[in-house]
Amino acid sequence: MCKLPTQRFFTEDFGIPLTMTPNFEDFSCEMVFGAPPPPLETEECYQTPCLVNECTVATPTVRPCPKVRE
Fold it and tell me: Burial level of 39, CB count in 10 A (0-12/13-18/19+)?
């Protein structure tokens, strides 16, 4: 949920491109400064289903979590 706003903030407000890659196993993020983010639809996190035990709108399906697009 913080990926897109954080990438946008660093890229637009600081002028430093940032790509964040979430790790859904330990809930951390890898931050790569200087790397412009690829289109969201091409990233692995976009295809990751909701975390059923963590997300209140989750359903155990293979469709992307709706919160990723916000």
Answer: exposed
pTM, full prediction: 0.65
For tokens 């979590």, name the residue: 65
DSSP assignment of 9-67: IIIIII---EEEEEETTTTEEEEEET-PPPPGGGSHHHHPBP-TTT-TT--SSSSBPGG
Q: What is the mean pLDDT of residues 43-47?
A: 82
Domain boundaries, the chain: 3-69
| Six token digits for residue 7 | 């990438």
The three-class DSSP label of residue 70 is coil
